[in-house]
Structure formats: C-alpha cells, structure tokens
Amino acid sequence: MDTNEHKLLELISKNEGIDIEFKACRNQLSRDVYETVCAFLNRHGGTILLGVTDSGEVQGIDPDAVNRIKKDFVTAINNPQKIYPPAYLSVDEAEVKGKKILRIYVPESSQVHRCNGRIYDRNEDGDIDITDHTRQVADLYQRKQATYSENKIYPFAKLEDMRSDLIDKCRRLAGVWREDHPWLGMDDLELLKSAQLYQTNPETGKSGITLAGILLLGNDRIIMSAVPHHRTDLILRKVNLDRYDDRDLVTTNLIESYERIMAFVRKHLPDPFYLEGIERISIRDAIFREVASNILIHREYTNAFPAKLIIESGQVRTENSNKPHGFGVINPADFSPFPKNPVIGRFFRQIGWADELGSGMRKLMKYGKAYGSADPEMIEGDIFRIIVKVPEFGPASDGAVTPKVGTKSAPSRHQVAGEVAGEVAGEVYKLLMVLDKCPLTRTEAQAALALKGQANFRDRYLGPALDAGFIEMTIPDKPRSSKQKYRLTEKGRQFLAAEKRER
C-alpha cells in the first residue's frame, strides 16, 4: 500500500464531517456535489471524495466514466451560472483498494459563493441553504471580510484612481489566453466588478473598490494612501555581503511589481538549456514565475513587514508576511494549499501569470531540483520563506550573467537596448523578426515560427511582446476579430534595429 492510499483510507475512516464529504458517483456526478463545493468555499474548505458511499464504503468509479466526470466537474465549476463567483479547482485521480476514486480539495474562499443562485454553508456533515436567513448571510459576509484583508472596501477610492492603461493591459492579456474572455467586452467598472475588485458591504450598503483592486490596478498615490508600507525589496548580494551589489525597491501596483521581479531575476540569474520533451523551455522563468506570483499573491498586506527577494551565491531567498496555517517546512506530498488572497490569485490566473492553487508548488518542485540540484524549500510561519538553489554564476563582460563551468550551458544574451528596461526573451526577438515583414494573424505568426503549441506561443512570444509594447493589434477595439493581426510598433522597430546591430 503506497503512502497516498494509506492517507486516503485514514481520511475515509474519519467519516463525513464539516470538512469531509463522500459522494458515490459511480457513473456520473451527483447534482448536490456543487452544493457541497459552495458550502466548503463559504466555510473553512474541505475534501470531497467521489467513489465513496455515505457510509464510507469504497465503491469506486466506473473506469470508463472517470475522464467524463472530471471534465464535467471542471466545466461546471468554472461556469458562473453554476458557481458564482467561479472557483478554480482541480480533480486528482487515486486508487484505493484497487478501485478508482476522485479527490477534490476545496479551499476556503475569501468570497461568498452561490450555487444556482443559492448560498450554502457547512454544518457538521451537511450543506445548509442559508439564502433566506438574513442574519446568517450577514454573518458570513462579515467573517469573510474580517478574515481576508484583500476584501476591505475603500469608499474614497474612485474609478479615476485606477490606471485605465493597466486595466486595458490586463484585459488584453486575458484575451491572449482566452479569445472569448468576458473581460474583452466589459468597460473598466464592469471588469472590476467581475473580478470582485469592486464590492458592496452588506451591512453598511456602501460600495467601493477593495484593497485587492487598489493593489492590482491603482495608481501609486492611492496605493500609498491605502497601504503606505507596501514594498517589495529586490536585492543582489554576492560581492558586497554587508550591503548589496544591485537593488530595486518596488512600491508600485502588483502587475508592474511582478514584471520588475521577473526583470531583476532575468538580469542576475542564468537560464541553462532545458528540454521538456522536444521543446526547449526557460526553466528559470518557470521557477521564478511561481516565486514572483507567490510573493505577491500570498502576502498579508496589512502587515508592514516588507517582502524581499534576495539573490545570493548559490541560492535565492524570499520573505513575505503571512497569516500561517501551520509552521515549519512544507512537505509537498501531504500539503493542502490554503489561499491567502484568493481574489488576487484569481486575477493573476485570468491573465496567465499563475496556476491553479497547488499546481504552482508542484511546478516549483519539479523544475527547482533540475535548476539548482536540490529541492526548493518552503517554510510556513508568520514570515513565509522560499529558498531556491541556483547554478553558480559569475559576471559576464556585457553585464549579463553566465554559469560557471559544470552547469548545463550558458544563457543567451537578450538584453533590451535603448530606452526599454529589463530583458526580453529571444522568443520575442524571433516574433519581431517575423512581423517586421508584414502584419500577421496569430495563426500565421505561429506557423511562420514553426510552433505547434498555442499556449507556448502565447506565453513566450505573443504575450510578452504585447506586454512590452513592441507589437499592437491592427483592430484594437475588436480583440476577438477573425481578421485580427499583429504589427510592430515604433518602439518595437527601434528595439529590433538595436538588436540587429548588436547581434
């Protein structure tokens, strides 16, 4: 019996309770599974086991129905007409006593969710419809706002305090990942409401932009008014150990904070050659994409402790304030992820900068050991810490970095010339070369680069190029148009010309 099966049997032996629910689901999902999801989201989270009867008997799921049940569940759970706001949950397959079952972990949410328009809460081993019980609904909203500071409403914050250029940028990024994304047809206020960044306090009746909205999309003035201590300190400390060799003190919105974290990492860390199957991926970016999003998504922003990312010899350390749900080193094998700022996390997922809860940690562990020859460490506490081992490197003649002898390979140099700060991957340079001839549709550009994976093209080519302002849409007011093409901007032409001279 493997460890996972043993743990599932222990869980089943506890019987149903406030955070455990069994559903038989032999050939299809039972309708009340979504009511349980809603109740767990509204209460303290929990685990649903499909293929187990109410009495705890492991009945199993028909093997021919497993994939269909998984697909039906994921489709429904992301449908706002079924669960609102939509939840992002994954379904894991397992085998117990030789039978297939499905495990769904439902984290507590910072929002009040509805299932088919009704509000459910959890009580012992049952799901209770509290929609018509005004006091219980008010208590639920109050508890959510008290527990999750990201939901605090700031009535003095107005729509004009939000950066419309940043909202438009996120709208475009969401459209890159999903061509029919609903944000594409919304104005700025509708987008804020859809992303739960504009809410109404049920007790006072006051509506306004939340702390999450201010942090994600606010101008620097409103951010400093709401959270004057907000900052992320990026430090390179290799030669001058008493102070630092390079530093970037970031006090702006979370979207540009993420970009500056990634630019700092790309400036100072190598990107050794790595193949996944037959396709090269940036293992450095895959790792620090998770690290950067973790620093920003899971921070407790009411705490004045400044977040830090420190690059040292052989490792990178991060620190951020935290509301802990345990203490000590996290074991990924038995860790149940707990969302610290679900609204901010969901926003990052919409624009393609974060994965589903838990999958980011698995990706970090998968690539971390290949990158630095040791598993990353995550330490839960009042201060959440991550330690990632990295290849040893020394300064290169052009200001980039290059691994010392013994690592897989030296990184390519992709420094941005002229007025453009940070780094741009070589993939973006290739895309600009293709578009230099004439504007192309997404499929035409992808074909010109001989790329098969649409997600990879959007993640590493199209998205970063749009984000950097090197390319633009030919029909910007209709992002989903079948006639949409992409062309170089003047900024893109200047960058391309500078790169051609240097290469």
How are the secondary structure elements laid out?
Elements lengths: L2 H11 L6 E4 L9 H10 L3 E5 L15 H12 L5 E2 L6 E6 L2 E8 L7 E2 L4 E4 L2 E4 L4 H14 L5 E2 L9 H14 L10 H7 L3 E3 L6 E4 H7 L2 H7 L5 E5 L9 E5 L3 H15 L6 E2 L2 E2 L2 H15 L9 E6 L2 E7 L6 E2 L12 H9 L8 H14 L4 E4 L2 E7 L3 E3 L5 E3 L22 H10 L6 H7 L5 H15 L2 E3 L12 E3 L1 H13 L1
Parallel strand pairs: 1-2, 12-16
Antiparallel strand pairs: 2-5, 3-6, 4-5, 7-8, 9-11, 10-11, 12-13, 14-15, 16-17, 17-20, 18-19, 19-20, 21-22, 23-24
- The CATH class of the largest domain is Alpha Beta
Strand content: 15-25%
Mean of the pLDDT scores?
83
Ends distance: 57 Å
Question: What characterizes the major β-sheet?
Answer: 7 strands, mixed
* Count of all domains: 4
* Strand order in the sheet with the most strands: 13-12-16-17-20-19-18
CATH topology of the largest domain: Heat Shock Protein 90
Derived structural class: alpha+beta
Gross geometry: globular
What is the multimeric organization of the chains shown? Answer: single chain
Figure out the total of helices.
16
Please tally the β strands and state the result.
Answer: 24
| CATH architecture label name of the largest domain | 2-Layer Sandwich
The share of residues in helices is: 25-40%
Flag low-confidence runs. Answer: 394-424
Q: Any idea what the radius of gyration is? A: 24 Å
